[in-house]
Specification:
Length: about 250
C-alpha cells in the first residue's frame, strides 16, 4: 500500500490552532490530514478568508486536506422547510470547500436518529447532495457512530441503496462499531460496496467498558481491515485517529 494514502486526523489537536496541528502532522511524516470540522480547525460556515488561510498552511507544511470531518446533513430529517434549506446550503458550502482544497471526501451526518423510518426522508436530500458532490469530484461518507443510522450496518446499506450514487457511502470506522458491540467484520461484509473513506484506531472491551488504546494493542485487527479494503479495490485513504486523552 502507498504510504501516502495514510493521513492523520487533527481531532486529537482540536484545542490547538489549525496551523500547529498541521505542523505536528508534518513532523510525524504524514502528507495528508483529516481536518476536524469544528473551529478552530474548520468552522461550520467557512469563509473565503478561512479557506485562504488553510491553503496557505497547506503550502507551508506540505500537508494536504484529504478529508473534511464536517457534519452537514444532520438536520435532513427535520420537518421544517427552512431548516432543510439551511442544511442543504451548508452541505453545498462544505462540498465547494472540499473541491477548492482538493479534498477527496467530507464526512456527512445521516440525521441524528437511529430510526430507519427516517431513511425515506433523508435519502432524497442525500441523493441531491451526492449529485452535487459528484459534479465536484467529492465523496460523502457517513461515519459509523451510535446515535445515527450509520451505527447500524443494515440501515447504512439501506440508505446507500436508496441514495443510489457511488459518491455517497460509508466512512468505515471499525473501532466505533466495536465500541457499540457491532462486529466490524460482519459490518464490512454488509456495506463493503459503499465504503468511501476509513478511520483507523483501536480499543478493547475490559471490565470497565470499552477502552481506547494505541493502534495494534487492542481488539481491532488493523491488518485485516487494510487487507479487506485493498481486496475490494478501495482507493481512498486510511486516516489515523488518535483519541486517547490521558497519555
Amino acid at each position: 500500500m502507498d504510504i501516502n494514502r495514510i493521513s492523520a486526523c487533527t481531532y486529537a489537536l482540536r484545542e490547538h490552532p489549525y496551523e500547529y496541528a498541521m505542523h505536528v502532522i508534518a513532523d510525524a511524516g504524514c502528507v495528508k490530514a483529516d481536518l476536524w470540522g469544528r473551529a478552530p480547525h474548520f468552522p461550520e460556515d467557512p469563509t473565503d478568508e478561512v479557506l485562504s488561510d488553510i491553503e496557505s498552511v497547506v503550502e507551508r507544511t506540505g500537508v494536504v486536506v484529504a478529508n473534511i470531518g464536517s457534519y452537514p446533513g444532520r438536520e435532513f430529517a427535520s420537518d421544517d422547510a427552512a431548516v432543510l434549506e439551511a442544511e442543504m446550503a451548508k452541505m453545498r458550502l462544505i462540498i465547494d470547500a472540499a473541491q477548492r482544497l482538493g479534498s477527496r471526501s467530507i464526512r456527512v451526518s445521516p440525521g441524528h436518529s437511529e430510526d430507519p423510518e427516517t431513511i425515506g426522508q433523508i435519502a432524497p436530500l442525500m441523493a441531491e447532495s451526492a449529485a452535487y458532490a459528484e459534479a465536484a469530484g467529492v465523496y460523502l461518507g457517513m461515519e459509523n457512530h451510535a446515535g445515527s443510522l450509520a451505527g447500524n450496518p443494515a440501515h447504512s446499506l439501506a440508505l446507500c441503496e436508496a441514495v443510489g450514487n457511488p459518491h455517497f457511502g460509508v466512512l468505515y470506522e471499525p473501532s466505533n462499531l466495536w465500541s457499540i458491540k457491532v462486529d466490524y467484520r460482519e459490518a464490512f461484509s454488509i456495506f463493503r460496496d459503499h465504503i468511501v473513506h476509513c478511520h483507523m484506531k483501536d480499543g478493547a472491551w475490559t471490565g470497565e467498558g470499552y477502552q481506547r488504546c494505541h493502534l495494534g494493542e487492542g481488539e481491532v485487527d488493523a491488518s485485516w481491515v487494510v487487507e479487506s479494503l485493498e481486496g475490494i479495490g478501495y482507493e481512498g485513504d486510511y486516516a489515523l485517529e488518535y483519541e486517547i486523552p490521558d497519555i
